[in-house]
Amino acid sequence: MTEQTMTATESALAAIWAEVLGIETVAPDDNFFALGGSSLKAMQVVTRTRRDLGQQRFGLADMFKATSLREIAESLDGVGG
Known about the structure:
- The protein has helices spanning 8-21, 39-53, 60-65, 69-76.
- The chain is mostly helical.
- α1 (8-21) crosses α2 (39-53) and α1 crosses α4 (69-76).
- The longest helix is centred in the middle third of the chain and has 15 residues, at 39-53.
- The mean pLDDT is 92.
């Protein structure tokens, strides 16, 4: 996997995903479920994202709507649609 520049939100989410999934690295274009995520692990990500990033409106449905870490980060930052 090549080094990719990530925003602060992408980096924070990547760290959460990596810890929850038990993997070393997560790239901006990675899909949570393709990396081995499940609905239970997604709920752990939601809980951590709310707590660590202060994103109280972020919910489980958001994990299923987005296709990549980048899309979730853009949504959290108000960039995505």
